[in-house]
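Hi R.,

As promised, here are both runs. First protein below:
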Amino acid sequence: MNAPLHDRLALLAERAGIDVHWRDALDRPQTTPADTLRAVLRALGLPADHADEVEDSLRRIDEEHSGVRLSRVLTADAGTRIEVPRLPRARPWKIEAGDATPVSEGVLPSGEAAIAVPSLPGYYTLSLDDERTTLAVAPPRTFGVRDVTTACRRPWGMAVQLSGLRRPGDGGIGDFTALEICAKAAAEKGADALAISPLHALFAAAPERYSPYAPSSRLFLNGLYIDPARTSGEQTVRAVIDSHNLRQELAELEWLDLIDWPRAARARMTILRSIFEGASADLAHSERFMAFRNEQGDPLERHARFEALHADFTAHGRPGGWQGWPAEFHDPASSAVTAFAREHSREVAFHAWLQWLARQGLEGAQKAARDAGMAIGLIADLAVGADSGGSHAWAHQAEVLTGVSVGAPPDALNRLGQDWGLTTFSPRGLRETGFRGFIGMLRAALAHAGGVRIDHVLGLKRLWMVPHGAGATEGAYVRYPLTDMLRLIALESHLERAIVIGEDLGTVPSDFRDTIAEKGVLGIRVLWFERAADGGFTTPKDWSDKAMATTSTHDVPTVAGWWSGRDVEWRKRTGLDDPAVNEVARREQERLQLWRALFASGSAWNEDSPPAPDEISPVVWAAAHHVSLAPAPLAIFPVEDILGLHEQPNLPGPTDAVHPNWRRRMPDTSSRLFDGPIAHAVCATIDQTRNRG
């Protein structure tokens, strides 16, 4: 490529929000290759394969950034002033509340561009001349832990994979009833929160695709978590089970140590379909369901149609995403889709009905948590993206990226980089649609929860995009409108009275954590990553008071697994280890470093005589006590670390055939989960340290 064209390409990339120059996890300077820039620009709708396309795309970007017209959504901090397009003439303006009540108005003098913003957070309509736009006025920070607890309390909670919970008669997979029971049991131990894995809608017709972080849609819920008995009663469910000869199948599934997703899904969906057919004769039931369906409107209708279409095409030899369907079905508003929905109205209604039941189930679990005394209750989890062939990508094509996948460059967690195979919002699409999809996603996550964990929260500032067909190391960082998105998060957080946690692990820009902390978004500090310059573990008092504290996460070793070296075994078995490093010897040294840190914080004894690798109980207790001492506003402990379990829920990188990701079940039912001596001792020391220490 000649130098002038390369310079113009680099200019276009920078103006489009792509980092041409960036620094990696080791702070080494990197430059994004030209081919990668072109591929990512193409995904952003800005072709740049030759000089004319580069110039055309530059003109488009210049027009978009000219500021001649109002954006579809303007965000502002409460009580400040907002900039609007500057023109050489006077213009009348007016701000109205959501019910059209005038809030303020005036005339903007010629050449001026600042309008005073209301001091009360909320959504308003701003009129300027003949233009109207939404004005989102944000509070100074998100709704916080201190807004739901007293100053003398330092709340703590647990984290659990909902699918792994057990209860008698669950048919081999966790459900909302098991979640209710778990929430009550956790509350009895003193927990104020229960963080759960993502509950996003997956693919009903493809139960083998069960990763909670690769959903079909982040706007809707996974119908597999519905407890059929809560819908129609135990007697009806027993009759359905007998009519389909499912009793032995369900019993076998229930006793498995690992979830058999395809079998469990088929059994549960068989039961739910039978109940649906019987429920249609219940007039009151149908009226309530139809009211929900009408209230949810077009987004629910499109999702239900997608599920019906996906099931039909899968059954007829077209599995995979919507891109493999006949062209006439690519547009959700097409006549072909409308005709299909009319001809398959019962199937479409069934999938809408599943969403109705799932919403009730989640609402019931949150109510149970709060009624049991939890100050926060459930903390939902919001995945970083969605499957490009799924419901959301099909139904909202103007909002999402095509041709690239979200991932991460090489870092401490994965030296080969990561390609998650997911799509997400386009930064240009966000602005062009007035952040409609982003706001809807936040509302869906917060609808029945006391908080939300935003996976890979760095995506609010930038995301690593890997062009399809390229390696995970061959991506580029794409910038996002961080300020606007943080304001919208703060506003929605206050409207729903829910706290916000951002998973800020990995390659983190130097100013990012301070930026989100200013808006009240809690980061995450993990025991394994809180290290000093010499590699030793830092004392809890030096941990951040603006981040949630935890022993581990679903993607890293549990305390018991780390201490015993189980994770080292898995890394060697799956090829994730570094052949140049003796990880067994290194872990032996790290055990001593950790034990000394635990001793220094008053959480352990016999400084130079740590327990043997198979002595788990004292380490699990000491690690929990150690993390509880951190000044974090909230501490969350995975159930695996409450119980002293060796296996982590997910090992990033290997396929499920190599490591049983998202399949592990709890060792006991939710009602008895915390009755054992290890759980009792760990919960007691956490509660004592956090609330009475």
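And here is the second one, sequence first, then its structure tokens:
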Amino acid sequence: MRSLLAAADVDPVALETEAAAAVAAARRRKDPEILGLSLRVLAMALRARMDDPGARRLLNEAVHVARRHELHSVAAGALVTRATVLQELGRVNGSMRDLDAALAAISRATDIEAGERARVLERILVSRAVVAQNAGMPAVAEARYRALLAGGVSSEFVGRLVHNNLALALAERGAYDQALEQADAAVAMTADAPGFLGPVLQTRAWIAVRAGRLAQGLVDFERSAQAHTDAGVPLGEYYYEYADAMVDLRLLPEATSAAERAVEELVSVGSALMATEAKLRLAHISLLTGNLEAARDLADAAADEARRQHRAGWRDKAVLVGVEARLRLRSAGVTELRAARRAARNLERAGHLHSAVEAYLVAGRLALDVDRPRDAVPTLVRAHELGREGQVLVRLRGRLAAALADRARRRSASALVQCRAGLRDLAVHRSNLPTIELRALASGHGAELGEIGLGIVLETGSPAQTLAWMERTRAAALTARFPRSVDAVVERRTHTQEQAASSTGRSVVTTETADDHRIRTAEWARSVEPVVDPAQDLRPMGLTALRAELAGATLVELGTREGRLVAVVVEPRQARLVELGAAADVQNELRPLLFALRRLANPRSPQAADAARASADLRIARLRSILVAPLGVDADAELVVVPVGLLHGVPWSCLHDGPLTQAPSATIWVRTRRAALARPGQGATVLVAGPGLEGAREEVEALVDLHPGATVLEPSSGTAAAVVAALADADLAHLACHGTSRTDNPMFSSLLLADGPVTVQELHGAGVAPHRLVLASCHSGADVAYLGDEVLGFVSAMLAQGTAGVVASIAAVPDVAAVDLMLELHRGLREGLTLARALHAARGRIDRDSPEGFVNWCTFSAHGAA
């Protein structure tokens, strides 16, 4: 039986049947020692499957039997295991009582050999360290784990547990290199214990992502999920660790999905300790996604549970989230301020570096909100001081606290220094991420620093300084170009299909399709260095140099400050700052306009079309008055518009009477202009007709007459591989295909080709981009704006990879009616016009009185300078 107990340290789940048989045999023979030991082994199997209530019942019986028959060593072992189960059930005091009772029992045991006595005492010390860790005292836990390692551990089971938990304690204070060393040691000790592979890989994955080692972390998360599934272990704990990692990457839909799954699974199995932690993670994510009431309620529930579990550290973390939710709900006052400051001090003393920085920041914000600047400044300064010791995302929060403190003290210059330093740190962090998507999302970490800085430079009244600051935060993720890999689309599609066919595990996330997730994580795991073109200087330029690039056009770059819009207007002879209206006013007009355009694209009756047209005309007039009229530019001036936020969804072409092009930033626009000048009319023309689109073949056949010798891909021959290969060196590409927009994840917006959809993710990953691109597809121009002045979608992905100009629509395209517009556009291109001027001329020649013609007049826009 002792050998069975030792084997349970390696893979308890695999011994469940054997342990159950041993329990039955011991009952028949009325052997109390075998019964006590086998009940403990069976309980270990149930605990590994996260059935803590079932394990507790078995251990209660084991302790009762051992005590009744004065089997002190058996009682001690069962008490130690029950202490672990009680911790997981959230009964920390009961766990401590069991550990004290185990010490007393082992001291009374006279029939136990010295080696076994030492092993039981070791397990008690390990359990005491775990209690400290779960109670929110990582510094105490770290000291206890180090003492155990210094004295030498008795088995790989204990060593694996100590190394794994020490790694987590080190990560809490930001010592990621040391933490990964400990995690590596724990993983190395699982070679003969596959049942424990999932949890230790999960630990290493979480630490690696937090340390910025994304590729390693994502591979470990995938391996961990499969190991859990292979061992028959529920994924509840795994899900909440994964959710935490996704928060650092700002993949909030994925984080929400994983955290909700964690709460559901952990509550269902009665794992109160981890369920409390999962609820707190979900509360924090709800805060980030703006679901403030849910964040408040979940945080309050987690705080109450942690208080009952006597886990002060977790209670303080939960209180902090609750205070921040109330602050943003405008319902926090002095009582919440005291609670936040108390939580901050407690978390700092306990060694929770990341949480302490956040706590001081929240307390400082609240002190400013209740007009207590004398309390706010030292609190914010403390956040900055602590943040210096952390990794980059912690330092960013410290920089933000310092900027807020300087603003409160009216030290604008010093605050701007902090904003600049924080954004420099963020740029380094962003540059280490492997995809355009993750880089764009990472910019959200610096959104508030960017807005504070913009507010400061606006106070100077200088258009040059304001434009330079806007460019510092605008579309930074798009400035890196990734190397070309024409075969990558075929390779990834084949690999994805093979994975789908062979996969037996459970999906890590539930908001994506399995194929989406596999494609995405394959991209994340790639270690690809961006291409740096020494001829392209992407630093923001001065106004004189920018005017030379504009060559007579007018640049309008927009920004937001405290919910209001502002524009920098750079004209041939002057630059101006212009205050516009509230962003909310634009939103109020934009939504009904887009709804009216959808109705006009497929009107159900003449009356419905008339009503939709009247609404659209009204909204366009109002948007002109908010966004264009205050600019004071000539009606026929050629504009380069750099939108921000929701303004990326505005149909700009119908708001201005002259030629107009858009760009994610002035820097990107300059890059496209230089590319256009360097490659005038070189390369082939590619015309693609997608399947299932009534007017696509007619459109392409008509364009062939304008482009003799063009490469033509028909609905049956235009596969992803063929289209990508043709686009690689094309001067001009025209894609008439069905388009599908994914606002939840624009990198998975797609065009329908002969062998199925091809996504933005795949096209960008292939690294190819035609010189000029016309996307005659629904929603192909509907790029999605992200926090931190980033934008993702077909247009931005193509511009990032080197395309110099794109024409695309932000809404549904009336199929057959688009042919006339496209023909006129290409006639202009044949005459040597830029895309913006050719589109402007083409729009002037179409029939705007028909619903379909009006929609096409409104929704197609040019992007870039070609």
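A quick note on the second one: The chain is about 60% helix and 10% strand. Let me know what you think.

Best,
J.
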